[in-house]
Design a protein that fits this description.
Distance between the termini: 7 Å
Shape: globular
Oligomer: single chain
CATH class of the largest domain: Alpha Beta
Structural class: alpha/beta
CATH superfamily of the largest domain: Metal-dependent hydrolases
Length: 436
């Protein structure tokens, strides 16, 4: 093929998975002029189309990560919008929603516009800015929701910090109703978590580290669910990590509260045991929890209590991570490990392949109200092709992020994106499938 991408591609013999249409079959998909032109079990080959036999690899809607930290503006030494979206497309994500805890915080239309302009110039994954709930994320005065939405923000959160004042959180949910906007809760009771550096329990006692009880999350989840029920506002609970939080959300949904929830791959892949050796790459907030919590997270994904898998991609440099455990920053990167870690749940029989793709594409698009991640005729060809059998070792050198703070460095992982298309354009094609 030419070095320039063709206008039409026919992908054949793929396992096509699209939960939005209840599709999971082996067949063909045609992309023409950046649009999905046809999907079926056996399509005719157009005269002008390039043909790629996927030999049973998965062809799925482009993944959407509804919770990432791109660090720009202000902390470009950790990550930039350009490097973060490079990591995204390498992980199969065609779109990411970036949290507002930048320096300065995304609390104005000008910063939202800056983020979108930088994303446009990078020409990689789509970027959806999430704006701050309060000015400077101080939890005191609401931002101008209308101006921020007009500038391109898609939701509101003070992620990185909770909105401590319950009256301000209530006000945000009420105000957001005027715009049918989503409020994303970083659920943390600061008076319980302050000074803690890992989960409170057996391991923290052995290591002599101050712990953070599960109640620090659960009390805050309960409060914000109660406020959503009171106001009728749309609430999303970020990074659920405990059994109690899963149950609070499950009961709230049964009562009809407008609440959704996400978890991150590290919460169903690891436990607090990963901190042994004072491993700062296993330090995050919420902290890694117990085996019982991990299984409850998996059950929440299985029964639909937890709607989405989001990475909470949180890059930090060596300055913040290669230091004493108590001093190390919270957070790990996750864009380039989300597929293999989530595939483990499929291989172990906890969830189906369709459930995995729903949690990583369809549900995030619905929750955020962004263009649907689906393979319907006429949709933009935002596509991820996954080789579920590919085994690779995660190394610092293989990462596209500027940071490498991952507890999976040096580990063998199975399953990866081998091609990512945005608007039919191959933005990640490391083996030259379309662009030799």
């Amino acid at each position: 093929m030419n070095s320039e991408p063709m206008n039409a591609y026919l992908f054949t013999n793929a396992r096509i998975i699209d939960p939005s249409q209840n599709m999971d079959f082996t067949g063909d998909l045609l992309v023409k002029d950046g649009i999905i032109a046809a999907v079926g079990e056996s399509l005719d080959v157009p005269q002008d189309a390039g043909v790629l036999d996927l030999k049973g690899k998965w062809l799925v809607p482009g993944l959407i990560d509804m919770h990432v930290h791109l660090r720009e503006p202000g902390e470009e030494y950790k990550e930039t919008i350009e490097s973060g979206t490079a990591a995204a497309i390498a992980g199969g994500f065609t779109a990411v929603a970036c949290m507002p805890n930048t320096q300065p915080a995304n609390d104005s239309a000008g910063i939202t516009s800056f983020i979108l302009e930088k994303a446009q110039s990078s020409a990689r994954a789509r970027v959806y800015p999430i704006a701050a709930i309060t000015l400077g994320q101080k939890g005191e005065q609401l931002t101008e929701f209308g101006d921020l939405l007009n500038a391109g923000a898609i939701a509101f959160s003070d992620d990185g910090l909770p909105v401590k004042n319950a009256a301000v959180m209530r006000q945000s949910l009420e105000y957001a109703r005027n715009f049918d906007a989503l409020i994303i809760s970083h659920s943390e009771e600061l008076d319980l978590s302050r000074g803690g550096v890992m989960n409170e329990g057996r391991v923290s006692t052995i290591l002599g580290l101050k712990g953070i009880p599960a109640a620090a999350e659960e009390i805050a989840v309960f409060r914000d669910v109660a406020l959503a029920e009171l106001t009728g506002g749309r609430l999303h609970i970020a990074h659920v990590s405990t059994k109690g939080s899963v149950e609070i959300v499950r009961q709230a949904k049964s009562r009809g509260v407008l609440v959704t929830a996400e978890t991150a791959p590290h919460y169903f892949s690891l436990t607090e045991d990963a901190v042994f050796g004072y491993n700062t790459f296993a330090k995050m907030y919420p902290p890694l929890r117990t085996g019982e919590d991990r299984l409850a997270i998996i059950e929440g994904l299985k029964d639909g209590t937890i709607d989405a898998i989001a990475t909470d991609h949180a890059p930090h440099s060596v300055l913040e991570k290669e230091c004493e455990f108590q001093m190390a920053a919270n957070g790990i990167i996750g864009l380039e490990t989300a597929i293999p870690l989530s595939l483990n749940l499929v291989r172990d029989g906890y969830i189906s392949a369709s459930q995995m793709i729903r949690c990583m594409s369809i549900s995030p698009s619905k929750i955020l109200g962004v263009p649907e991640g689906g393979l319907k005729d006429g949709n933009s060809a935002d596509i991820c092709i996954i080789d579920p059998e590919a085994v690779f070792t995660l190394t610092r050198e293989s990462l596209h992020s500027l940071s490498y703070n991952s507890p999976f460095i040096g580990k063998d992982l199975q399953g990866k994106a081998i091609l990512t298309l945005v608007d039919g354009r191959p933005v990640f094609d490391p083996t030259g499938i379309l662009l030799p």
